[in-house]
Amino acid sequence: MLKFMLACIMLMPLVNSWWAVQSSLFILTFILMLYCHHDFSNYMAGWCFNIDSLGYILILLSFWITALVVCSSQKVLKENNYPSLFLLVNIFLLFFLIMTFSANDYLLFYISFESSLIPTLILILGWGYQPERLQAGVYMLFYTLFASLPLLVSLISLYNMSGSLTLGLVENVSGAGFISCIWYVVTVFAFIVKLPMFLVHLWLPKAHVEAPVAGSMILAGVLLKLGGYGLIRVLPLFGEANKNLSWLWVSISLVGGVVVSLMCLRQVDMKALIAYSSVAHMGLVLSGLVVFGWWGVNGAVVVMIGHGLCSSGLFCLANMVYERIGSRSLLISKGLMNFMPSMALWWFLLSAGNMAAPPTLNLLGEISLIISVVSWSKVSMLSISLLSFFSAAYTLYMFSLSQHGKYYSALFSCCSGKVREYLILMLHWLPLNVLILKGSTVMFIL
Amino acid sequence: MVSMYLSSMLFLLSGSLSCLVLSLLCLKSGQAWFIEWELLSLNSSSIVMTLILDWMSFMFLGFVMFISSMVLYYSGEYMHGDSNMNRFMYLVLAFVMSMGFLIISPNLISILLGWDGLGLVSYALVIYYQNEKSANAGMLTALSNRVGDVAILLAISLFFSCGGWNFLFYVENMPIIGSGGLLCGLVVLAAMTKSAQIPFSAWLPAAMAAPTPVSALVHSSTLVTAGVYLLIRFSPALEGRLSQTVLLLLSSLTMFMAGLGANFEYDLKKIIALSTLSQLGVMMSILSLGYADLAFFHLLAHALFKALLFMCAGAVIHSVKDYQDIRMMGGLVYHMPLTGMCMNLANLALCGTPFLAGFYSKDMILEVAFMSPINLVSFLLYALATGLTVCYTMRLVYYSLSGDFNLGNLYSISDEGKIMTNPMMGLSVGAVFGGATLAWLIFPCPYMICMSPVFKMLALIVSVIGGVLGYLLNLNAVNYNLNSLKYYNSVVFSGSMWFMPFLSTYGASKNFLGSGETYQSVGDMGWSEYYGGQGIYSFIMSSSKILQVFQDNSMKIYMLSFLLWVIVLVFVVV
């Protein structure tokens, strides 16, 4: 794995040339694609790093999204808004993400997990466009830090107990007594806030709304998935405690998902709507994970990848509208089909992805998640059905309001889309719809 | 450059011909092909994309392609001059493709490709015209269909206990699953939303906001029959289940409700939509009695003449300056004789006039239904709905074709548009011969019908009564009183589809949108903030204010706090 990290470090001196970084990122992505072999559970093992199929697909996602982030943030270059620093921050973020997904030591994982917050914060504070970004940054930082400092204590106690923090060598915390349960909650809560679960999700819409397109894309595309990734890594340590407490997470996230979906129907801010819809989707991921079934964990991974591509694409679209219209409000940027007819197709395709229409990865993942959660308890059918129904409702609401009907009369004309923009959207959409043909590429195979 | 409507017509027509030939081959040899593509396999359950190619799917595909080729050709003139014509064509082609995927997939997961595709593409087609009415209709359509998608998703999760989703293998012995009843209920629910049965009927007339060629293809012959088709494939599993009984009652009610509603409707397209709804009720009800083959037969025959009827309606609307209100028409048979003939043909076929397409399927369905042990309610609904069908058809004939001339003083009505009349002629052939041909092909040995003369004549009697009533009641002149005002309440109730459009739009969205608002203000901007970011912030600020007082270097406070702690310590120690 070191070769990719070194490649990242070597990109840092190149930040003065936007194009060099851009093309190198794409080339690195394609090189990484060549390593898609699942013959062994762990490969590319080195000092503290190795990857398995789960780490691999998430690293690939990080590379992919980062390349697309650079591609879609050309406004930074055009307006000369510190483009080299911007690239540097992005490369740092990518570096930390690779480290997180390939670390085979819980402490190293923890450190890189936390370090990814810093470049994200800098992205929001540095390239966001409204004064409220300060508050949003603080929200993001403190919500996640508040939950993850206890995780450090838990990891150190694990070290104390088993004498090692290497993945797979740590002893399981047996029993479901009071201490085990507290330990369990403390450990998983950091990831649950990162996902985020309903009730601790407040940082997410704020961060998304204030972040520049790069921040939104990487946040929705990869950073939320850190939570799911962490859960997959730590949950097996707490088998019994998880069995006793999983009902809590499933209930909160499913009912919360419905509530969040209802709130989505009342959003007029495009980015807030997409952010809230992420909360609903991640709720399903969380319930699939804590149910502890093979279908659940695989569905969660597939939804993580699918949602990463799809919502990142939607944020891209929202930004393209913002760059032209200057507003994220659905009341102003409406009827856009009249201005950008070809873009409306991309809106439609990515919206279809967001509501888990076939043949997207989201559908495959959601089916697996629904299977596992319904097999766990039939009562959950109620909220799953509402969740699934409203996911279509708010996505269609967003699509129809932004694309159809009369346009805002203060608008006169705008560019209907550049090749670069269509390329970005295509590169979001293509893997989302093609990978399903061989679903096992995006699965967690031991 | 060849126009898109021509090339798609040729392409689809050749596809249709080959499908029909293959269907005949399969029918003769009894062959069927299964093709599977494994998407993924997990814990020995495989998610596969399954294609089934047997006579049934080939024949349905052939019909769909034939009708869509005619419709696309027809759109060449109907949509002429529309600035987004190519978008329209691509959407219709995408729709045909989704329908194809639906027809050839007997797998609960891979059928979603067609099923969701139909829902989404038909949404894009309904909102094709950019106005509020289309947007609302589209939302109603898409969300009603989404209920069915969700039902299929849940059914998939229950089907999991079979270890595979190729339902064709499992429908024969469904009781092996613990929750088979629930599963069947969900599948029936899904079919009911797609086929617009009560209580999901509101979307079908609303979807008439789409361009008329779309209505001809989508909302008469293909999309709405997807539910029926799913249940035809699924029907062995429904035998003797509660869901079958419920489906029988609801579909008979739909049939009656739609027939009644069509008698009070003045929008030409909505009348035809309601008649589609009524025929869907017929298909669903005979399906729930266990005669899946009859339902399939009627599905195909109905597709032919209903598409024709919609095309004629489109031609009429196109000529009368895009008015859809039948009170603005009248005497059209003198101005557009060819269209009038086709329209009449389609109408007669719909009523089940002997030896036209509808006769073979509808009459057989009625006789089989009367012969089977159904309860009185279903029987009465059947008889009434049959009469009502003829009733609204005659009313339509009076208002549009034969009645007085009601047009404005500037008009240009003609039959000259060859691009519109040619496909109508093509479908007319189907409406005349389709029924008989299908009957000979699908039922090599005829159904055994045995009933008393009264029952045998019943369909004819109610049809004649309905026809006479429908024509006479609507004859009007300026000096007549408007009798419907006397029964205002019941007229409004029957004419508005039993308030279903109101209930499924305002009634359904009011509470959800309201609670969304409440959660937003009470939850995310209320308690979640209070116990989250803002609450902690203000707590820390106020606490640090208190602490700051201690840092003011006031000797008295230091002494006081020292004393307090001593007291506390004393209590704790002692």
Provide structural commentary.
The complex is a heterodimer of chains A (446) and B (574). Chain A contains 18 helices and no strands. Chain A has helices spanning 2-11, 18-33, 53-72, 74-78, 83-102, 106-115, 117-127, 133-162, 178-194, 203-210, 213-234, 239-264, 270-290, 294-325, 341-354, 361-376, 380-403, 419-434. The mean pLDDT of chain A is 92. In chain B, a hairpin with a 2-residue loop joins β1 (33-42) and β2. The longest helix of chain B is centred in the last third of the chain and has 31 residues, at 500-530. At the A-B interface, α8, α12, α14, α15 and α16 of A face β1, α4, α5 and α21 of B. Chain A: One of its GO terms (cellular component) is mitochondrial membrane. Chain A: Belongs to the complex I subunit 4 family. Chain A: Keywords: Electron transport, Membrane, Mitochondrion, NAD, Respiratory chain, Signal, Translocase, Transmembrane, Transmembrane helix, Transport, Ubiquinone. Chain A: It is found in: Mitochondrion membrane.
Short description:
Chain A has helices spanning 2-11, 18-33, 53-72, 74-78, 83-102, 106-115, 117-127, 133-162, 178-194, 203-210, 213-234, 239-264, 270-290, 294-325, 341-354, 361-376, 380-403, 419-434. Chain A is mainly alpha-helical.
Report the uncertain regions of chain B.
none
Order of strands across the widest beta sheet of chain B?
Answer: 1-2
Helix content of chain B: over 70%
Q: Got a strand count of chain B?
A: 2
Number of domains of chain B: 1
Helix and strand run of chain A: HHHHHHHHHHHHHHHHHH
On the 0-100 scale, what is the average pLDDT of chain B? Answer: 90
The best one-word shape of chain B is globular
Q: Give the strand content of chain A.
A: under 5%
Number of strands of chain A: 0
The termini of chain B sit apart by: 102 Å
Radius of gyration of chain A: 21 Å
Share of helix of chain A, binned: over 70%
Coarse structural class of chain B = mainly alpha
Written as H for each helix and E for each strand, in order along the chain, the element string of chain B is HEEHHHHHHHHHHHHHHHHHHHHHH
Largest β-sheet summary of chain B:
2 strands, antiparallel
Domain NADH:ubiquinone oxidoreductase chain 4 N-terminal (chain A): 1-100
Transmembrane segments (chain A): 7-34, 54-72, 84-101, 107-129, 141-162, 182-204, 216-235, 247-265, 272-295, 301-322, 343-361, 381-401, 422-445
EC number (chain A): 7.1.1.2
Signal peptide (chain A): 1-17
